[in-house]
From TrEMBL:
<feature type="domain" description="Nudix hydrolase">
    <location>
        <begin position="44"/>
        <end position="178"/>
    </location>
</feature>
<dbReference type="Pfam" id="PF00293">
    <property type="entry name" value="NUDIX"/>
</dbReference>
<dbReference type="InterPro" id="IPR015797">
    <property type="entry name" value="NUDIX_hydrolase-like_dom_sf"/>
</dbReference>
<dbReference type="GO" id="GO:0016787">
    <property type="term" value="F:hydrolase activity"/>
</dbReference>
<protein>
    <submittedName>
        <fullName>NUDIX hydrolase</fullName>
    </submittedName>
</protein>
<dbReference type="InterPro" id="IPR000086">
    <property type="entry name" value="NUDIX_hydrolase_dom"/>
</dbReference>
<keyword id="KW-0378">Hydrolase</keyword>
Length: 208
């Protein structure tokens, strides 16, 4: 048995979209099960996201602190954002998010990992990049709005972040997956063996 996710699509007898929001929607599908029964499945339709684990020369990860209303928490996170434009190149989107949320640019970009955040109820796919060779971005800072106007920043050593993940102090999906993937990559073939920044992403195909 090969341990690798594979694309597959079961028969859908009927589908409807009972809710359409600003960025996402909710879809209801009547799906045929292996035994022939038909079961209704509701899920959020999402454009996809990118996130950036930005690592500086002192082995610190750049974090932002942002209010997240659905969970009623201010969470420590890594810079991230939606793929607002269909077919948008995820690397370009990640570079934009790092600039907008932290006013930082990076010289070296790799794909750290790809994840489905909650595949039982949402089709969101996230590509998490590793960004190194950090420096301050040029020009004016991006004009923040809404939750981002109250955003704080920090740079936290990798070892401390791992401890806080395992202690249950931080909960953001991309931060948890990103920092643990970083440590795993270092303990394996090394960071330079990570996939290139333009590696194919079947979950969200994009133009080069």
């Amino acid at each position: 048995m090969t341990i690798k996710d594979t694309p597959e699509e079961w028969e859908i007898r009927a589908t409807e979209t009972p809710f359409v929001g600003n960025k996402t929607s909710v879809r209801t599908d009547d799906v045929v099960m292996p035994d022939g029964s038909v079961v209704r499945r509701d899920y959020q339709v999402h454009p996809g996201s990118v996130a950036v684990l930005a690592l500086d020369e002192e082995d610190r990860v750049l974090l932002i602190n942002q209010y997240r209303h659905p969970v009623r928490h201010k969470l420590w996170e890594i810079p991230a954002g939606l793929l607002d434009v269909p077919g948008e190149n995820p690397l370009h989107a990640a570079q934009r998010e790092l600039y907008e949320e932290a006013h930082v640019k990076a010289e070296d970009w790799r794909v750290l990992t790809d994840v489905y955040t909650t595949p039982g109820g949402c089709d969101e796919a996230v590509r998490i990049f590793l960004a190194r060779g950090l420096s301050d971005a040029e020009g004016e800072r991006f004009a923040a709005e809404h939750e981002e106007t109250d955003m704080a920043h920090a740079r936290v050593p990798v070892e401390e972040l791992v401890r806080r993940v395992l202690a249950g102090d931080v909960h953001n999906n991309c931060l948890v997956v990103g920092v643990l993937s970083l440590v795993a990559a270092r303990g394996g073939d090394g960071l330079d063996a990570l996939r290139p920044a333009d590696a194919p992403w079947p979950a969200r195909p994009f133009a080069s």
